[in-house]
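Annotated sample (chain length 61).
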Amino acid sequence: MWQELAIALCLVLVLEGILPFLNPRRWRRAVVLVVQLSDRQLRLVGLASMLLGTALLYLLH
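Output written by the structure step:
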């Protein structure tokens, strides 16, 4: 199980690095927009992301 978790973490790092590598200017603008979100909006985006990820894992497994 720990090996699969490590693999998943490595894949997250690879995927997170793609956008700043390919288009750093647009990625920087997106980060600035995220900083301007309220705590409530940011929590809702985080919740939506977790629910979507959980649903996709359920469907794929």
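Annotation: The chain has a mean pLDDT of 95.
Annotation: The CA atoms of residues 52 and 58 lie 10 Å apart.
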